[in-house]
Amino acid sequence: MTTDEIGALEPNARRRLEQFRDCFKKSPVFDYFVYYSLGLLAQFKRKSIEPIALWIGVAVRTLQLFLSQFAWDHRQIESRLRHMMINEFGSENAIGVIDASAHGKQGDKTPGTQRQWCGASGKVDNCVVGQHLIYTNNDPQNPFSACVASDLYLPECWIDDPNRREEAHIPEDAVFRTKWEIAADQVEACIADGVRFSWITCDEEYTSVPEFIYRMDHSGQRVIGEVRANFRCWTKRPACRSFQGPHASKRVDNICRFSPAFYNQGWSRIHIKNTTRGECVWDVKLARVHLVTKDTRNRSCPTDRRYWLIVARNPKTGEIKYFVCNASENTMIEEMLCVAFARWHVEK
């Protein structure tokens, strides 16, 4: 947006943001919040503090202090944002999309910075990672989407270094959480605030961890997500508990190729949606399976509950995807795949 456009928007933006005023201890801090929010809409090559501060007309150091040290109630702001969104845009068919995004950084002073996978550069790079949860109504014509939770992923090397933590002002009560644990915490926090998702969907980094699926089960939340080819399960409960091959859990890629539950059924072609590149069509097979859990002696055993295992093949490219879903047995495959392929909203 241009400066003139933002200037015209400012009165309405200020009225909108006025709902958050009591989350800030001092009025000037709230004003910085308004100006910084508007600055994020401006046409800068880099949305960093210095160009925004110069555009606002305040000292760069002042805006740095606003972001790093000035006090506001982050949890109250986050909760109020969710309430506003549900009141105005709540949908019975809402989908929660989980994803992480990485941003390249120079140096090692920014909290969370380390060499790790960076999707923006497509390689292992020096970057920080944010863990996000998006709320979308998945409308095919004019979808509404909003970020309802966002947290910084702090690697163990940051948590275990007290000097580094103190220098970066990381709270003393911060503990290491994996990305899937952060994502599960975000879903549960949204549910506690009254946000209701019809579905949660995510990529293989989350649903390839069975404990994440079990957290969704505990919350009564339906979830579907990709899993890696080496994800393990059973098509039926083993006759006995044994580590021998015939009784052990199997990789999903092998199950989908060799198990009678899959090779005895034909491919079903499912039209998922229309895109700018044409129809999105996949061939699928599916069956009910038992996932791997642990007993009281920490031994692997099948879950009592059964889940959907879905294998999808792209008829044009031959690409294979594997999905696991905790929906009920009478759930339509068209609905599950429509949700599974709704992750594109988070890229926006």
Characteristic key phrases:
alpha+beta; globular; 348 residues
Q: Short description, anyone?
A:
The chain is α+β, with helices and mostly antiparallel strands.
**Which percent band covers the strand fraction?**
25-35%
Distance between the termini: 17 Å
The helicity comes to 25-40%
What is the number of E strands? Answer: 12
Q: Radius of gyration in whole Å, from Cα?
A: 23 Å
Report on this structure.
There is one protein chain. The chain is of the alpha+beta class. It has helices at 3-17, 27-39, 49-56, 60-68, 74-89, 156-159, 162-167, 179-192, 204-207, 210-218, 252-258, 260-263, 333-340, 344-347; strands at residues 95-104, 114-118, 123-136, 145-152, 199-202, 223-226, 232-234, 250-251, 268-275, 278-294, 300-313, 320-325. Strands 1, 2, 3, 4, 5, 6, 7, 8, 9, 10, 11 and 12 form a twelve-stranded mixed beta sheet that branches. Strand 2 and strand 3 form a beta hairpin. Helix 3 crosses helix 4 (60-68). It is globular and about 70 Å long. It starts with a helix and ends with a helix. The model has no long low-confidence stretch (mean pLDDT 89).
List the helices and strands and how they pair.
Layout: H1 3-17, H2 27-39, H3 49-56, H4 60-68, H5 74-89, E1 95-104, E2 114-118, E3 123-136, E4 145-152, H6 156-159, H7 162-167, H8 179-192, E5 199-202, H9 204-207, H10 210-218, E6 223-226, E7 232-234, E8 250-251, H11 252-258, H12 260-263, E9 268-275, E10 278-294, E11 300-313, E12 320-325, H13 333-340, H14 344-347
